[in-house]
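Hi D.,

Good news: the full-assembly prediction came through. Inputs first.
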Amino acid sequence: MIFVILKDIAILSAISTILALVMVLAQRWLSNYGTCKIDINGKRDVSVIGGSSLLSSLSEKQIFLPSACGGRGSCAACKCKVLSGGGPVLPTERPLLSKEELAAGNIRLACQVKVKSDISIEIPSSIFNIRRYHATIAEIIDYTYDIKGITFKFDDGEKIDFLAGQYVQLETEPYPEMKQRVVRAYSISSKPEINDALQLIIRYVPDGICTTWVHKYLKVGDKVSLTGPYGDFYLRETDADIIFVAGGSGKAPIKSILEHLQIVGTTRKMTYFFGARTVRDLYLTDEFKALEDVFPDFKYEPVLSQPDPNDNWSGKTGFVMPYFKETIRDPKNTEAYLCGSPGMINAVTKALMDNGLAKEKIYYDSFG
Amino acid sequence: MDISAFVLFWAAIFTSNILLTNFLGMCSYLSVSREVESSFGLGIAVMFVLTVTAALNWLVYNYVLVPFNIVYLQFIVFIIVIAAFVQFLELVIERYVPALYYTLGIFLPLITVNCAIFGVSLFMVIRDYSFLQSIAFGAGSGLGWLLAILMLAAIRRKLKEKLVPTGLQGVGISLIITGIMALAFVGFSGIVQIQ
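Then the structure:
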């Protein structure tokens, strides 16, 4: 009896083993795409092991395309031009490509394109400047009850070269509630003249994976990893008047731009509207007020939408939009720099255009 | 079973449609039939997998299970064979037809647990089919399943513009339609009987 059972078990195991073996061999043989060459802008070749996505293959070679969703195909930040070898546009990419991009047919999401053969792509050359930085937390400042300023010091002589207003991507470490690593984008709030460290201003979002980690677990001395710099939101070097509009942690890139201007000097007329709800949400107010004496023509205008009666707020109230009219001197010669939620960006852009600003002179960094 | 493979093929499509007479493979039938395109994709995949797994399982049954006298393990073995084959198919499609992989790829894991596929393998054993009969029965059942899901998807497309009572929307009305379709298919059953 026992032998019959053992025999049956053996045969069942044998069948399973044979099938598993077939699968392993198939995987070896079918999923092995060998070494593939990625030709970048016709100037540079990198060789990678085929089979994984273009985005991760490139990042293995220290070429970092921006990606806010971590390769899940939902943020469309990793768009690039695939000239050949990318295969057809996939259904997962379609919803994120515009009509023009679909018509062109070679704009793809790098996270969805798999490298299975030699492939040739085109990416902006500024991407080469992007790399991974290893840093140690040097300082954490509580700006408000929900906003922290965190200073990252780079390890052994790593140096960053960025334009005031650009952003970096911070990679989280696993923590008790979240075992996975995620990548999130934050604007640099320190000036580009400091290149061995940088500061980010991060607001706590309830249940936010990265902000929970930053606010609850991150402490001075922790090691983290960042990539950057990314983004086309940076100060344009013209003589035009400037309107800055940014509330909450959106102050970060504006702080970087103003601190940079403080060093290089400027005579441009500048006004910064900082929208907040109550006095509790204001931070760095004295520092920014002090800049009014540094620059020949700079105004810092905090605007509170719901000031608490106990605060005795004597400054501007309501939304920022009604104040644009009295501020704009020459709409044809005025640039605007906005940083905030998509809703705020849309409303402010509309108000600025109603006041005569050209759409292409309104620069913004939108975060959801 | 004394019936030609050719007759069996047609019988499996019309008189003993695996879905409409045995109600097998209902879950993916109901959930995917919202769109005609994906229904067609899934139907083709089911047809292909059904045909091949019927053949594979016939070989395994007659050359492994029967000689070693472990027919009672057929349920487990059939499922392992189906799962391995689907996995294998997934790899092949990903390698050679990436576009198809992204339209069909999401359905392949669904197929592994599609009762129609397992059901065909079991019927083939119970009814004592020959190798050729098994392949014909598998292919016919697959085609029948494709036909049924395409019909439902087409009807559901029309249904989008119609007023359906709240309680019957979605799966409810789909099951009623399936029942009526099944009644229509019973009309074919006088032509040939295979069970």
